[in-house]
Amino acid sequence: MGRGKIEIKRIENPTNRQVTFCKRRNGLLKKAYELSVLCDAEVALVIFSNRGRLYEYANHSVRGSIDRYKKWTASHNSGSGSVSQANAQYYLKESSKLRQQMIEMQNTTKKLLGDTLTTMPMRELKQLERRLDQAVQKIRSKRNQLLVAEIGSMQKREMELQTDNTYLRAKIAEKE
Known about the structure:
Elements (H helix, E strand, L loop, with lengths): L13 H26 L4 E5 L5 E5 L3 H15 L6 H31 L8 H54 L1
Antiparallel strand pairs: 1-2
């Protein structure tokens, strides 16, 4: 029988957290060693504990593996710059998209609130009127649904009260 899944979240108890860190660190170091032996792979693993202690494993040398990694990323990303530059470009592009969406939403909000009615062309005014009419229709429809549900609930309650009233009248009649 396999182990159950655990929720991955920060362990609040410091003692339990330290025990888990040690066990998982040892497991990770063992896996790194096995990967290097079984697959003849160059493996380097660097771990810093929350207390700042350094744990490392490398089947050759950590420094050599890091240098090799830097050379590889530099040669494979030479056209677009470093990884951090690519990330920066991506985030700049995303922020530009979000800024544009925000401006569009602000403009839509202004239109819906009537702030730009004086400068709005006739075609857009008619479009806005249609959208507002549709919104009013949806609101009325929802209000009517709620009223019908409330009426149904009240009718059901009325029937229950009438049944209770009939029952109580019968009880009173029995005692007289």
